[in-house]
Amino acid sequence: MGSVEATNKDANGSPAEKNPTVVFVLGGPGSGKGTQCANIVDNFKFTHLSAGDLLRAEIKSGSENGTMIQNMIKEGKIVPSEVTIKLLQKAMKESGNDKFLIDGFPRNEENRAAFEKVTGIEPAFVLYFDCPEEEMERRLLSRNQGREDDNIETIRKRFKVFLESSLPVINYYDAKGKVRKINAARSVEEVFETVKGIFGSKNEKVISVSIACSVVSHFVIT
Ligand SMILES: Nc1ncnc2c1ncn2[C@@H]1O[C@H](COP(=O)(O)OP(=O)(O)OP(=O)(O)O)[C@@H](O)[C@H]1O
Ligand SMILES: Nc1ccn([C@@H]2O[C@H](COP(=O)(O)O)[C@@H](O)[C@H]2O)c(=O)n1
Ligand SMILES: [Mg+2]
Protein backbone atom coordinates (compact mmCIF):
# COMPACT_ATOMS: atom_id res chain seq x y z
CA MET A 1 0.00 0.00 0.00
CA GLY A 2 1.58 3.31 -1.09
CA SER A 3 1.73 6.44 1.00
CA VAL A 4 -1.12 8.92 0.72
CA GLU A 5 1.34 11.77 0.76
CA ALA A 6 3.47 10.23 -1.97
CA THR A 7 4.25 11.66 -5.36
CA ASN A 8 1.41 13.60 -6.91
CA LYS A 9 2.65 15.56 -9.90
CA ASP A 10 0.97 18.21 -12.02
CA ALA A 11 0.48 17.93 -15.81
CA ASN A 12 4.09 19.04 -16.44
CA GLY A 13 5.55 16.48 -14.07
CA SER A 14 6.66 19.06 -11.52
CA PRO A 15 5.53 18.70 -7.92
CA ALA A 16 1.95 19.82 -7.48
CA GLU A 17 1.35 22.82 -5.22
CA LYS A 18 -0.37 20.58 -2.69
CA ASN A 19 -0.64 16.85 -2.21
CA PRO A 20 -4.31 16.51 -1.40
CA THR A 21 -5.74 13.35 0.11
CA VAL A 22 -8.41 12.00 -2.20
CA VAL A 23 -10.79 9.13 -1.50
CA PHE A 24 -12.92 8.03 -4.46
CA VAL A 25 -16.41 6.94 -3.40
CA LEU A 26 -17.92 4.51 -5.87
CA GLY A 27 -20.89 2.16 -6.08
CA GLY A 28 -24.00 1.67 -8.16
CA PRO A 29 -26.75 4.28 -8.44
CA GLY A 30 -28.59 4.37 -5.12
CA SER A 31 -25.98 2.37 -3.22
CA GLY A 32 -25.79 5.17 -0.63
CA LYS A 33 -22.67 7.10 -1.66
CA GLY A 34 -24.10 10.56 -0.95
CA THR A 35 -25.72 9.46 2.32
CA GLN A 36 -22.50 7.96 3.67
CA CYS A 37 -20.37 10.90 2.46
CA ALA A 38 -22.56 13.26 4.52
CA ASN A 39 -21.86 11.08 7.58
CA ILE A 40 -18.12 11.02 6.86
CA VAL A 41 -18.04 14.84 6.56
CA ASP A 42 -19.85 15.13 9.90
CA ASN A 43 -17.22 12.97 11.60
CA PHE A 44 -13.98 13.58 9.73
CA LYS A 45 -12.38 16.62 8.14
CA PHE A 46 -13.22 15.85 4.53
CA THR A 47 -14.90 17.97 1.86
CA HIS A 48 -17.54 16.04 -0.10
CA LEU A 49 -17.57 16.62 -3.84
CA SER A 50 -20.26 14.74 -5.77
CA ALA A 51 -19.55 14.75 -9.51
CA GLY A 52 -23.28 14.33 -10.19
CA ASP A 53 -24.16 17.29 -7.92
CA LEU A 54 -21.52 19.47 -9.63
CA LEU A 55 -22.92 18.56 -13.06
CA ARG A 56 -26.48 19.31 -11.93
CA ALA A 57 -25.33 22.69 -10.54
CA GLU A 58 -23.66 23.41 -13.88
CA ILE A 59 -27.00 22.83 -15.66
CA LYS A 60 -28.74 25.21 -13.24
CA SER A 61 -26.05 27.88 -13.69
CA GLY A 62 -27.04 28.28 -17.34
CA SER A 63 -23.58 27.26 -18.57
CA GLU A 64 -23.01 26.66 -22.29
CA ASN A 65 -22.56 22.96 -21.48
CA GLY A 66 -25.88 22.82 -19.61
CA THR A 67 -28.02 21.31 -22.35
CA MET A 68 -25.41 18.69 -23.25
CA ILE A 69 -25.03 17.69 -19.57
CA GLN A 70 -28.80 17.54 -19.06
CA ASN A 71 -29.22 15.24 -22.07
CA MET A 72 -26.42 12.96 -20.90
CA ILE A 73 -27.87 12.69 -17.38
CA LYS A 74 -31.36 11.92 -18.74
CA GLU A 75 -29.84 9.07 -20.74
CA GLY A 76 -27.64 7.90 -17.86
CA LYS A 77 -24.56 8.54 -20.01
CA ILE A 78 -21.17 9.73 -18.78
CA VAL A 79 -20.28 13.35 -19.49
CA PRO A 80 -16.85 13.90 -21.13
CA SER A 81 -14.08 13.97 -18.53
CA GLU A 82 -12.87 17.41 -19.57
CA VAL A 83 -16.10 18.98 -18.30
CA THR A 84 -16.32 17.02 -15.04
CA ILE A 85 -12.65 17.36 -14.13
CA LYS A 86 -12.75 21.15 -14.57
CA LEU A 87 -15.71 21.29 -12.17
CA LEU A 88 -13.93 19.05 -9.65
CA GLN A 89 -10.70 21.06 -9.83
CA LYS A 90 -12.57 24.34 -9.33
CA ALA A 91 -14.48 22.93 -6.33
CA MET A 92 -11.29 21.53 -4.79
CA LYS A 93 -9.55 24.89 -5.10
CA GLU A 94 -12.51 26.83 -3.71
CA SER A 95 -12.91 24.49 -0.72
CA GLY A 96 -9.62 25.54 0.89
CA ASN A 97 -9.37 21.96 2.19
CA ASP A 98 -6.85 19.27 1.27
CA LYS A 99 -8.97 16.19 2.06
CA PHE A 100 -11.65 15.19 -0.42
CA LEU A 101 -14.31 12.55 -0.85
CA ILE A 102 -14.87 12.44 -4.59
CA ASP A 103 -18.26 10.77 -5.00
CA GLY A 104 -19.35 9.20 -8.31
CA PHE A 105 -16.02 9.74 -10.00
CA PRO A 106 -14.17 8.18 -11.84
CA ARG A 107 -17.13 6.59 -13.57
CA ASN A 108 -15.25 5.07 -16.51
CA GLU A 109 -11.71 4.49 -17.74
CA GLU A 110 -11.68 7.84 -19.54
CA ASN A 111 -12.56 9.66 -16.27
CA ARG A 112 -9.88 7.72 -14.40
CA ALA A 113 -7.02 8.21 -16.83
CA ALA A 114 -7.81 11.86 -17.53
CA PHE A 115 -8.01 12.76 -13.82
CA GLU A 116 -4.67 11.11 -13.16
CA LYS A 117 -3.07 12.84 -16.16
CA VAL A 118 -4.47 16.30 -15.46
CA THR A 119 -4.11 16.40 -11.67
CA GLY A 120 -1.39 13.83 -10.97
CA ILE A 121 -3.49 12.70 -8.01
CA GLU A 122 -3.66 9.04 -6.98
CA PRO A 123 -6.47 8.19 -4.55
CA ALA A 124 -5.51 7.14 -1.02
CA PHE A 125 -8.12 4.41 -1.40
CA VAL A 126 -11.49 3.72 -2.99
CA LEU A 127 -14.65 3.13 -0.97
CA TYR A 128 -16.91 0.77 -2.90
CA PHE A 129 -20.50 0.46 -1.72
CA ASP A 130 -21.66 -2.92 -2.94
CA CYS A 131 -25.45 -3.30 -3.16
CA PRO A 132 -27.81 -5.57 -5.13
CA GLU A 133 -29.67 -3.92 -8.02
CA GLU A 134 -33.14 -4.70 -6.57
CA GLU A 135 -32.27 -2.78 -3.39
CA MET A 136 -30.75 0.14 -5.33
CA GLU A 137 -33.83 0.29 -7.56
CA ARG A 138 -36.15 0.40 -4.52
CA ARG A 139 -34.11 3.23 -2.99
CA LEU A 140 -33.96 5.31 -6.17
CA LEU A 141 -37.68 4.97 -6.87
CA SER A 142 -38.47 6.28 -3.40
CA ARG A 143 -35.75 8.96 -3.20
CA ASN A 144 -38.16 11.80 -4.05
CA GLN A 145 -35.56 14.48 -4.68
CA GLY A 146 -37.01 15.43 -8.05
CA ARG A 147 -34.08 14.02 -10.00
CA GLU A 148 -34.86 13.62 -13.70
CA ASP A 149 -32.91 10.36 -13.80
CA ASP A 150 -34.82 8.66 -10.96
CA ASN A 151 -37.31 6.95 -13.27
CA ILE A 152 -37.27 3.24 -14.09
CA GLU A 153 -36.19 3.74 -17.72
CA THR A 154 -33.12 5.85 -16.84
CA ILE A 155 -32.35 3.77 -13.75
CA ARG A 156 -31.98 0.63 -15.94
CA LYS A 157 -29.62 2.55 -18.25
CA ARG A 158 -27.57 3.73 -15.26
CA PHE A 159 -27.27 0.14 -13.97
CA LYS A 160 -25.99 -0.96 -17.39
CA VAL A 161 -23.42 1.86 -17.50
CA PHE A 162 -22.32 0.96 -13.96
CA LEU A 163 -21.72 -2.68 -14.89
CA GLU A 164 -20.07 -1.98 -18.24
CA SER A 165 -18.02 1.16 -17.49
CA SER A 166 -17.71 1.78 -13.74
CA LEU A 167 -17.03 -1.73 -12.39
CA PRO A 168 -13.88 -2.02 -14.54
CA VAL A 169 -12.53 1.09 -12.80
CA ILE A 170 -13.21 -0.50 -9.40
CA ASN A 171 -11.44 -3.66 -10.61
CA TYR A 172 -8.49 -1.53 -11.76
CA TYR A 173 -8.06 -0.10 -8.25
CA ASP A 174 -8.72 -3.47 -6.63
CA ALA A 175 -5.75 -4.88 -8.53
CA LYS A 176 -3.70 -2.11 -6.88
CA GLY A 177 -5.00 -3.09 -3.42
CA LYS A 178 -6.88 0.18 -3.03
CA VAL A 179 -10.51 -0.94 -2.82
CA ARG A 180 -12.40 -1.09 0.49
CA LYS A 181 -15.54 -3.01 -0.46
CA ILE A 182 -18.45 -2.44 1.89
CA ASN A 183 -21.71 -4.36 2.12
CA ALA A 184 -24.15 -1.48 1.50
CA ALA A 185 -27.32 -3.58 1.72
CA ARG A 186 -27.76 -2.78 5.40
CA SER A 187 -29.19 0.13 7.35
CA VAL A 188 -27.51 3.55 7.02
CA GLU A 189 -26.24 3.19 10.60
CA GLU A 190 -24.80 -0.28 10.09
CA VAL A 191 -23.03 0.77 6.90
CA PHE A 192 -21.59 3.81 8.63
CA GLU A 193 -20.22 1.68 11.49
CA THR A 194 -18.11 -0.12 8.88
CA VAL A 195 -17.14 3.15 7.17
CA LYS A 196 -16.01 4.58 10.51
CA GLY A 197 -13.76 1.58 11.00
CA ILE A 198 -12.07 2.39 7.71
CA PHE A 199 -11.54 6.08 8.39
CA GLY A 200 -10.58 5.47 11.99
CA SER A 201 -11.31 7.55 15.04
CA LYS A 202 -11.82 11.31 14.74
CA ASN A 203 -8.18 12.20 15.14
CA GLU A 204 -6.65 9.29 13.29
CA LYS A 205 -5.00 10.04 9.96
CA VAL A 206 -6.42 8.35 6.87
CA ILE A 207 -2.91 7.31 5.86
CA SER A 208 -2.44 4.90 8.76
CA VAL A 209 -5.94 3.43 8.33
CA SER A 210 -5.26 3.04 4.64
CA ILE A 211 -2.21 0.91 5.31
CA ALA A 212 -3.99 -1.14 7.96
CA CYS A 213 -6.89 -1.87 5.62
CA SER A 214 -4.80 -3.09 2.73
CA VAL A 215 -4.86 -6.66 4.05
CA VAL A 216 -8.65 -6.88 3.71
CA SER A 217 -9.07 -5.21 0.34
CA HIS A 218 -10.40 -8.33 -1.36
CA PHE A 219 -13.11 -9.06 1.18
CA VAL A 220 -16.48 -7.44 1.73
CA ILE A 221 -16.15 -5.55 5.01
CA THR A 222 -19.25 -5.93 7.17
N1 LIG B 1 -28.38 1.99 3.81
C1 LIG B 1 -29.51 2.50 3.33
N2 LIG B 1 -30.69 1.88 3.55
C2 LIG B 1 -31.85 2.37 3.06
N3 LIG B 1 -31.93 3.52 2.31
C3 LIG B 1 -30.79 4.17 2.06
C4 LIG B 1 -29.53 3.71 2.54
N4 LIG B 1 -28.56 4.57 2.13
C5 LIG B 1 -29.19 5.51 1.41
N5 LIG B 1 -30.52 5.29 1.38
C6 LIG B 1 -31.53 6.08 0.67
O1 LIG B 1 -31.46 5.64 -0.69
C7 LIG B 1 -31.54 6.76 -1.57
C8 LIG B 1 -30.26 6.82 -2.40
O2 LIG B 1 -29.17 7.15 -1.53
P1 LIG B 1 -28.00 8.10 -2.02
O3 LIG B 1 -28.57 9.30 -2.65
O4 LIG B 1 -27.08 8.28 -0.87
O5 LIG B 1 -27.33 7.13 -3.11
P2 LIG B 1 -26.18 7.44 -4.18
O6 LIG B 1 -25.31 6.26 -4.21
O7 LIG B 1 -25.57 8.76 -3.91
O8 LIG B 1 -27.05 7.48 -5.51
P3 LIG B 1 -26.73 8.23 -6.89
O9 LIG B 1 -25.61 7.50 -7.53
O10 LIG B 1 -28.00 8.08 -7.67
O11 LIG B 1 -26.42 9.66 -6.57
C9 LIG B 1 -31.79 7.98 -0.70
O12 LIG B 1 -33.18 8.24 -0.63
C10 LIG B 1 -31.25 7.56 0.67
O13 LIG B 1 -31.93 8.20 1.74
N1 LIG C 1 -18.31 11.19 -13.20
C1 LIG C 1 -19.62 11.39 -13.52
C2 LIG C 1 -20.60 11.40 -12.56
C3 LIG C 1 -21.91 11.57 -12.95
N2 LIG C 1 -22.21 11.77 -14.24
C4 LIG C 1 -23.59 11.96 -14.70
O1 LIG C 1 -24.44 12.38 -13.64
C5 LIG C 1 -25.44 11.37 -13.40
C6 LIG C 1 -25.83 11.32 -11.97
O2 LIG C 1 -24.68 11.00 -11.18
P1 LIG C 1 -24.86 10.60 -9.64
O3 LIG C 1 -23.52 10.23 -9.12
O4 LIG C 1 -25.43 11.79 -8.94
O5 LIG C 1 -25.80 9.44 -9.62
C7 LIG C 1 -24.85 10.07 -13.99
O6 LIG C 1 -25.81 9.09 -14.32
C8 LIG C 1 -24.18 10.64 -15.23
O7 LIG C 1 -25.10 10.91 -16.25
C9 LIG C 1 -21.21 11.77 -15.18
O8 LIG C 1 -21.47 11.95 -16.38
N3 LIG C 1 -19.92 11.60 -14.81
MG1 LIG D 1 -25.38 10.53 -5.09
UniProtKB/TrEMBL annotation:
<keyword id="KW-0963">Cytoplasm</keyword>
<feature type="binding site">
    <location>
        <position position="186"/>
    </location>
    <ligand>
        <name>ATP</name>
    </ligand>
</feature>
<protein>
    <recommendedName>
        <fullName>UMP-CMP kinase</fullName>
        <ecNumber>2.7.4.14</ecNumber>
    </recommendedName>
</protein>
<feature type="binding site">
    <location>
        <position position="147"/>
    </location>
    <ligand>
        <name>a ribonucleoside 5'-phosphate</name>
    </ligand>
</feature>
<feature type="binding site">
    <location>
        <position position="143"/>
    </location>
    <ligand>
        <name>ATP</name>
    </ligand>
</feature>
<keyword id="KW-0418">Kinase</keyword>
<dbReference type="GO" id="GO:0005524">
    <property type="term" value="F:ATP binding"/>
</dbReference>
<comment type="similarity">
    <text>Belongs to the adenylate kinase family. UMP-CMP kinase subfamily.</text>
</comment>
<feature type="binding site">
    <location>
        <begin position="104"/>
        <end position="107"/>
    </location>
    <ligand>
        <name>a ribonucleoside 5'-phosphate</name>
    </ligand>
</feature>
<dbReference type="InterPro" id="IPR006266">
    <property type="entry name" value="UMP_CMP_kinase"/>
</dbReference>
<dbReference type="Pfam" id="PF00406">
    <property type="entry name" value="ADK"/>
</dbReference>
<dbReference type="GO" id="GO:0036431">
    <property type="term" value="F:dCMP kinase activity"/>
</dbReference>
<dbReference type="GO" id="GO:0006221">
    <property type="term" value="P:pyrimidine nucleotide biosynthetic process"/>
</dbReference>
<dbReference type="InterPro" id="IPR000850">
    <property type="entry name" value="Adenylat/UMP-CMP_kin"/>
</dbReference>
<comment type="function">
    <text>Catalyzes the phosphorylation of pyrimidine nucleoside monophosphates at the expense of ATP. Plays an important role in de novo pyrimidine nucleotide biosynthesis. Has preference for UMP and CMP as phosphate acceptors.</text>
</comment>
<dbReference type="InterPro" id="IPR027417">
    <property type="entry name" value="P-loop_NTPase"/>
</dbReference>
<keyword id="KW-0665">Pyrimidine biosynthesis</keyword>
<dbReference type="InterPro" id="IPR033690">
    <property type="entry name" value="Adenylat_kinase_CS"/>
</dbReference>
<feature type="compositionally biased region" description="Polar residues">
    <location>
        <begin position="1"/>
        <end position="11"/>
    </location>
</feature>
<dbReference type="GO" id="GO:0005737">
    <property type="term" value="C:cytoplasm"/>
</dbReference>
<feature type="binding site">
    <location>
        <begin position="30"/>
        <end position="35"/>
    </location>
    <ligand>
        <name>ATP</name>
    </ligand>
</feature>
<feature type="binding site">
    <location>
        <position position="111"/>
    </location>
    <ligand>
        <name>CMP</name>
    </ligand>
</feature>
<feature type="binding site">
    <location>
        <position position="56"/>
    </location>
    <ligand>
        <name>a ribonucleoside 5'-phosphate</name>
    </ligand>
</feature>
<dbReference type="GO" id="GO:0033862">
    <property type="term" value="F:UMP kinase activity"/>
</dbReference>
<feature type="binding site">
    <location>
        <position position="158"/>
    </location>
    <ligand>
        <name>a ribonucleoside 5'-phosphate</name>
    </ligand>
</feature>
<dbReference type="GO" id="GO:0005634">
    <property type="term" value="C:nucleus"/>
</dbReference>
<keyword id="KW-0547">Nucleotide-binding</keyword>
<dbReference type="GO" id="GO:0036430">
    <property type="term" value="F:CMP kinase activity"/>
</dbReference>
<comment type="subunit">
    <text>Monomer.</text>
</comment>
<dbReference type="GO" id="GO:0006207">
    <property type="term" value="P:'de novo' pyrimidine nucleobase biosynthetic process"/>
</dbReference>
<feature type="binding site">
    <location>
        <begin position="77"/>
        <end position="79"/>
    </location>
    <ligand>
        <name>a ribonucleoside 5'-phosphate</name>
    </ligand>
</feature>
<feature type="region of interest" description="Disordered">
    <location>
        <begin position="1"/>
        <end position="20"/>
    </location>
</feature>
<keyword id="KW-0067">ATP-binding</keyword>
<keyword id="KW-0808">Transferase</keyword>
<keyword id="KW-0539">Nucleus</keyword>
